[in-house]
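In these records, each integer encodes one residue's backbone shape. Here is one protein:

___
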Amino acid sequence: MPILQRFPASRVLIYAGDHLLPHVHVKLRDGRESTVDIVTLKIQGRIVAREIREELLWIESNRAFLLDEWRRYNP
């Protein structure tokens, strides 16, 4: 489970051998976790967009890198 980016209140991760469409996991310090679709930025889970604005901007700005990492860990 590589941590791709750390933020003051969260981490962005990719799980190896994961399922579904390409996505990352955003995990907050309080333990809540959501998935974010790398292409559409759709959030699924217990976190709402206003809580992870900075993370969403980072995901959007690093989309190509994240898709490459997704393919590397989920062949």
